[in-house]
Amino acid sequence: MNVRTLIEIEVKTNLKVKRLIYLVIVWSIFLVYLSILFKVVLFKYSHSQSFIIERIQTQLHWESIKIKIYYYSNLIPFRTIYNYVINNENWRIGYINVVGNTILFIPFGLIISAMMYKSNSNRRIFSYATLTSLSLEVIQLILGLGQFDIDDLILNSIGAIIGIMLFNFVTIIYRSIFRKWIKEDLIVR
């Protein structure tokens, strides 16, 4: 083996180690984010463990779920947003709901984009965000920990799109700076 081959092997090994460290860090951040997301969405009111177990036992029957779907769900897009913006005397509650639901999923778009940066599949990332939001809404409905609202799903998806766009923007900026730095480094040598 010549020196060049050894250097190439060392560089590839270093890249694999760096990639592994990167993935461990991103996954750790994602798990922390998910735990915060679940706390904010599902357990926004501090409930004891016995309360949650009782809630699960009392809410998991078909009649209860049908009533919640019929009376306590919003399946009409933009109805809640419209009511908050137009008909609500207390605009702060509407603002917090609309902005909060959007901001809540920006990290999701950022982190999943960071996990999947090689594949760069924005549609897949958007699908993951939408499915996660839908799952949280359904869990809220079934367990009676909140209300199912299609507007929350829409706003969460918009937040994920913003996160994806932010990641793509930062990646473009980083690459342009990094390429310029490499070119300057090569010119100096």
TrEMBL record:
The keyword Ribonucleoprotein does not apply. It comes from the Bacteria. Keywords: Membrane, Transmembrane, Transmembrane helix. The chain crosses the membrane at residues 20-42, 93-113, 125-148, 154-174. Residues 30-169 form the VanZ-like domain. This is VanZ family protein. It comes from Cohnella herbarum.
